[in-house]
What does this fold into?
Amino acid sequence: MPHHTKEQKLQAFSALLDVVDTLREQCPWDSVQTNESIRPNTIEETMELAEAIIAGDAANIRKELGDVLLHILFYARFGDEKGDFDIADVCDSLREKLIFRHPHIYGDSTAKSASAVRERWEVIKMREKDGNKTILSGVPTTLPSLIKAERVQEKASSVGFDWDCPEDVWLKVQEEIGEVEAELKAGNREGVEKEFGDLFFALVNAARLYGVRPDNALEKTNRKFIARFNYVEQGAKQQGRQLQDMTLAEMDALWDEAKQKHLGE
It folds into this structure.
């Protein structure tokens, strides 16, 4: 599909705004929605977009981007109705922020690599009007724990709080494994939970240092496990049996078949 011109993109956006305005004014359902009422749906749509991205499904990414954009336009419409802001204010604020955060493009500083940009990112954000007051204050408290761990580590790294050599992180991982084992042997339930948390955090750190997004990696493994386990379950049904009636060895045999078929990969 050919790329649209800038004028065509603006026309498409304007036409979409007209539709959203019409729905807000005339649709019995759309006209009564609020920030609070559509918030759960926004989370769902964002997760569906994330799922499409993991799957590498371009057609579905396009669809889910539209769903997320619809929510953004509705929130902007709600703000307009209250006299707080409109979509133009949203765009202007974003444009100003992007220009401020890229002095190597719009200012007189230089940055010739992605790592150089990243190193200055958090410091620049703290200089913004209404910007983050501390390095870690910009991490949403509601983020899933795995993503939150990665984000706080990235932010700490941006000001130099990081390992000198990525290889050194494996000593920390081994240390945390040992501490988990020690707490398990001691039968200390609270200690076990704490040390597992430290181990997960160290593994997220290792993934980050080697350029792996831990949430993406884990989700791909989840999908692989589900595909292979479903194969095991279906194999049992084809034998006229239930999984709970099979031995572990029998289930492992079906699991090996699923691996050979590269299911979920």
Remarks:
- The two ends are 28 Å apart (CA to CA).
- Residues 174 and 199 are 9 Å apart (CA to CA).
